[in-house]
Design a protein that fits this description.
The protein has about 190 residues and is mainly α. It is about 60% helix and about 5% strand. It has a single domain, classed as EF-hand (Recoverin, domain 1). The strands form two sheets. A two-stranded antiparallel ribbon has the order 1-2. Strands 3-4 form a two-stranded antiparallel sheet. Bound molecules: calcium ion (3 copies). One of its GO terms (cellular component) is photoreceptor inner segment.
């Protein structure tokens, strides 16, 4: 699966290296906590949606679930967010959606993420559908056997079907631009 058109959105290695240097500076202990990741991502504590989003990202990368990101988890995270191929990114988004980690998505899990994206996106562009409508549409398109649950394979296949769906499912809210924009603001 190639992604020829999206190279301008990718960070180059130098920028990733820079984020690694920030990690070492910000947390000499070698374990990154949620509030530190928020600072690196430039998330203001007043922005509830962005906080929730980064929190979800944080937990999806905390592979050993000890509530901190060690250096390897952090680097894996950066590579996936900024340089991962489509398939890896979709698998990762699925993990973000799947809050209880049972390998299937129900409506509540989907709606939870959609609400967050909706609030973040709605600031810059007008979305004509409500989160509930978006969620219904996703299930209509993706839940092939109509059992009210989306499996990973339904998710992966569904995403390829149309662009609107792909953008929602791969959680493309331009995290790259966000980080680049905020990176320079660190004290
Ligand atoms: Ca960890
Ligand atoms: Ca689930
Ligand atoms: Ca299904």
């Amino acid at each position: 699966m190639g992604q020829e058109g999206s190279h301008n959105e990718e960070m180059d290695l130098a920028q990733i290296q820079e984020l690694c240097i920030i990690f070492m500076k910000e947390c000499p202990s070698g374990a990154l906590h949620l509030h530190e990741l928020k600072r690196i991502f430039g998330v203001q504590s007043t922005s509830e949606e962005e906080s929730l989003y980064v929190e979800t990202i944080f937990h999806s990368f905390d592979t050993n679930q000890d509530n901190t990101l060690d250096f390897l988890e952090y680097v894996a995270a950066l590579h996936l967010i900024f340089r991962g191929n489509l398939e890896d990114r979709l698998k990762w988004s699925f993990k973000m959606y799947d809050k209880n980690g049972n390998g299937k998505l129900d409506r509540q899990e989907v709606k939870r993420i959609i609400r967050i994206i909706y609030k973040i996106k709605n600031r810059t562009s007008n979305i004509s559908m409500t989160p509930s409508e978006i969620c219904d549409r996703i299930f209509e398109l993706v839940d092939q056997n109509n059992d009210g649950q989306i499996t990973l394979s339904e998710f992966m296949e569904g995403a390829q079907k149309d662009e609107w769906l792909m953008n929602l499912l791969k959680l493309d809210i331009n995290a790259t631009g966000w980080v680049i924009q905020n990176c320079g603001k660190l004290p």
